[in-house]
Structure formats: structure tokens, C-alpha cells
Design a protein that fits this description.
Helices cover 45% and strands 17% of the residues. A six-stranded antiparallel β-sheet has the order 4-3-2-1-5-8, with helices on both faces. Strands 6-7 form a two-stranded antiparallel ribbon. Helix 1 crosses helix 3, helix 2 crosses helix 7 and helix 5 packs across helix 6. The radius of gyration is 21 Å and the shape is globular.
């Protein structure tokens, strides 16, 4: 009886180790594939500092944002190059620089779209890019704004990108809206709004959404996967 039990335990352990090994190999292969794609993207010079990257976030508020703004994309940031390595400056918790490969991998299905200011070659000089980074520094380390307020105390992803471009380049990417302009009828959206605001929803709060920036005619498509 003990021998049979021992065989069962050993078989179970071996089965677990084999499964775990396969999972780790698959995960490692996925990372290597992502790294190769990112390396190819940068090697082909398809991206440059100042580009804006969009993705579908896997956060618990992403679905509500997508439904309210009628958009596939719920998160975004600015790409910066630093000594040959690319990063995304983003408002998460907190505002920070994230390696591009890590940022892409974190989004839903690793999907992304990169857009660029239409006249970037004329406007985004090294001096202007330095100014953008300098302006962005004042937001670094600040908490993510779950209430989407139009202040600099806390900040959300599209607000960060919009304000950096506005202050550094005097370009407004995307139309500013109010919360009341969004589709707040879906139960997922209503549940999230109630969770955040209770019964006092600030309908007149100024907001910039990833959807509005994605749709801006000031941007051109650079790359996507």
C-alpha cells in the first residue's frame, strides 16, 4: 500500500515538474520572440523619441474606459530613446519610465499601435525633446489619478501625454471633453463610476481620453502589430 502511494506521489510530482518545465520554456520563448520583434522595430528606425504608443490595458478599469469612449485602446505613453534603449514614459502607479519591451508585453495580447506627430521632423528637434523630458519630470513619481481630475496633483495616462505636448510644443493632440460626453450607459461603466464617485459624478470635469488622442488628425501611423 505504501509502495503504491509512493509511486502515485512520485508520478504526480514528475507530472507537475514536466508541466512547469514546459510552461517556463513557453514563457521564455515568448519573451525571446517579443525581444526580437522590439529589436527589429527599433533597428528598422520605425520609431523615434516623441512617438506616442497605444495599447489595450489589462487593468480592472480598462473595459469601462473602452466602453465609455468607444475605443479599443485604454492606455498610452510617450516613447523616449536613451543611449540606444527605448522606454515608454507613462502614468501608471506611479508615473515612470518603462522599458518598451516590458510595456508592450504588459498590454493585451502584446498588441500596440505607434503614432507620430505629422510634422515631427520639423517640430521635435533635440532641443524640444529635451524640453518634453524636462516638463515630464515634474510628473515623475506622482500617483495615478483614478478620478480623472484635470489637475497636476495626480495624473492619468492620456493627460500626461497631452499636457507634455501642450506645454512643450503648444500642440493639443485630441479634443478635450467632459465626462458627460462619454457613453455612461453600460452597466460596466456605471459600476466603475459608482465605485469611484458614489452618487456624485463630476459630469463637467475636463477629460482627455486615449480614444480622442488616437483619433487626432495631428498624428500619423508609424507601426503596429
Amino acid at each position: 500500500m505504501k509502495k503504491t502511494l509512493l509511486i502515485i506521489i512520485i508520478t504526480a510530482v514528475l507530472g507537475f515538474l514536466v508541466h512547469w518545465g514546459i510552461e517556463m520554456i513557453t514563457f521564455a520563448d515568448g519573451i525571446k520572440t517579443d525581444a526580437h520583434k522590439t529589436e527589429q522595430l527599433t533597428k528598422d528606425s520605425k520609431i523615434q523619441s516623441g512617438d506616442i504608443i497605444f495599447q489595450t490595458s489589462t487593468s480592472n478599469q480598462s473595459k469601462a474606459i473602452q466602453l465609455a469612449t468607444d475605443s479599443k485602446y485604454s492606455h498610452m505613453g510617450i516613447i523616449y530613446e536613451n543611449e540606444g534603449t527605448y522606454f515608454v514614459y507613462e502614468a501608471v502607479q506611479p508615473v515612470k519610465l518603462t522599458p518598451l519591451q516590458e510595456w508592450i508585453r504588459r498590454g493585451k495580447n502584446g498588441h500596440y499601435v505607434i503614432k507620430r506627430l505629422a510634422n515631427a521632423d520639423e517640430i521635435l528637434t533635440n532641443t524640444v525633446l529635451s524640453k518634453m523630458k524636462q516638463i515630464g519630470e515634474k510628473f515623475k513619481g506622482k500617483s495615478y489619478d483614478i478620478y480623472f481630475e484635470w489637475s497636476d496633483d495626480k495624473i492619468y495616462c492620456s493627460e500626461l501625454v497631452w499636457k507634455i505636448y501642450k506645454e512643450a510644443v503648444n500642440v493639443e493632440i485630441g479634443q478635450l471633453e467632459k465626462l458627460s460626453d462619454f457613453d455612461l450607459n453600460h452597466k460596466v461603466v456605471q459600476a466603475k463610476m459608482k465605485e469611484r464617485y458614489g452618487s456624485h459624478i463630476p459630469m463637467n470635469e475636463k477629460v482627455i481620453s486615449p480614444a480622442a488622442m488616437f483619433a487626432s488628425d495631428k498624428l500619423i501611423l508609424v507601426a503596429q502589430n
